[in-house]
Structures are given as C-alpha cells and as structure tokens.
Amino acid sequence: MHFPRYLASTLRPRLDGLGAWLAPLGLRVLLAWEYLESGLEKWRGANWFDNVQSHFPLPLRWLPAEFNWQAATWIELIGGICLLLGVATRATAALLIGLTVVATAAVHWPAQWDSLATLAQGYAISDQGQGNFKLPLLFIAMLLPLLLQGAGRLSVDGWLLRDPRGRADALAWGGLALAAAWPLGWLLPGPALVLATVGTALLGVAVWHRRHGTVRPLC
C-alpha cells in the first residue's frame, strides 16, 4: 500500500532535478530558431514596415519605419542567440515578449472586433479577415516560463547564477501585474486597466506588510 507513495517520493525529486537542467531547454532552442529565422528574413529582405507603421502602438508609430525595422531585426537576431546560449534569459524573454506584442498589434490583431466570439476567430494561423494571432500568442506563452524561471542549469545563466531561492509575495505578483498591464493595454485596454488596478492593490498590500513586518509569500 505504501509503494505508490514511495514511488512518488522517490520519482518526484529526481524529475525536479532533471527538470532544472532540461525543462527550459526545448523552449529555448525552439524559440531561438523561430526568432533567428525571423531576424534573418528581415536582415536579408526589404523593409515593409512602412505598410503597417500606422498600426504600431504609441509611441512606436512616431518613430521612423527604418528605425523600427532595424530594432526588430537585431532584437530577434541577438535575442535568438541569447536564448540558445541561455544568456540574460529573463531580460531577453521580456524584450521578445514586448516585440511580439507589438508585432501582434501591428500585423496579427483584427482591425475590428465587437465581441469575444469575434476576437476568438483571430486565433488562427492564416488570416481570413479576423486576424491571425495564434502563433504570437503561443510564442508569448512559451517565453513566460523563461521570464519567470530562467534558462535552467544547462545555460550560461545557470552556470553563473546558482541561487535557487525566490519569493512569490504580494510585491512579486503586484509587479508582474503592472508589468503585464502595459503591453496588454496595446491590445485589450479594459482587461489591462483591471490588471493594473489589481497590481497597484497588491503593491499597496506589500508596502503595508513591509511597514508592519509581516511580509509573507502568497503561494
């Protein structure tokens, strides 16, 4: 009767140990390939940002199209290399998430939608008139674990930074909510406002607990 419990207690820490080495590796390699491929296409191709410059979120639409083109090209190229090697992985993931949100707003987001059902039609690979934000959304979902948990031990970051400690307290959740609200506001202003409100409230809770010496993890 105790065998399943024994198996779980034996297997789980070993899977956790392997996961620390290998779990982020597949995400890093796949995303590195995709962003390097996109960056190389821009580097070798002609600038077509003039055609979508008016759809860029502010303040990027005020910048020259050539500047935005070069910035996107080199963020993708350098970001792909950083992901592959696991160098500055959290900062790289944050930059690539921002870049992908901008690309979604400018190219993949539906020009008009009046309901969630209409918006959901844009969750597609090919654009049939309702947008095609499926791949960008998948890339963002794949970048989030790298932003939150890092590159894993099989990386330059893992070799340099060996401190596994962390704290998921109100300050962490509030900061994450505020950081996510800004790019989300380019696509969904209403939910972004709610997220910013929640993040501000959590930061207020964190300040209150800090003043009273009762900081504690939320999970």
Give a nutshell description of this structure.
The protein is globular.
Features:
219 residues, mainly alpha, 0% strand
Would you write up a description of this structure?
The protein is mainly alpha-helical and 219 residues long. It is built from eight helices and no strands. The chain has helices at residues 3-44, 65-85, 89-108, 116-120, 134-149, 156-160, 170-184, 189-211. Helix 1 runs antiparallel to helix 2 (65-85) and helix 1 crosses helix 5 (134-149). The longest helix has 42 residues, at 3-44. The model has no long low-confidence stretch (mean pLDDT 83).
For the sheet with most strands, the description reads: none
Assembly state (oligomeric) = single chain
Series of H and E elements: HHHHHHHH
Q: Provide the residue-averaged pLDDT.
A: 83
Number of helices: 8
Per-chain topology:
Blueprint: H1 3-44, H2 65-85, H3 89-108, H4 116-120, H5 134-149, H6 156-160, H7 170-184, H8 189-211
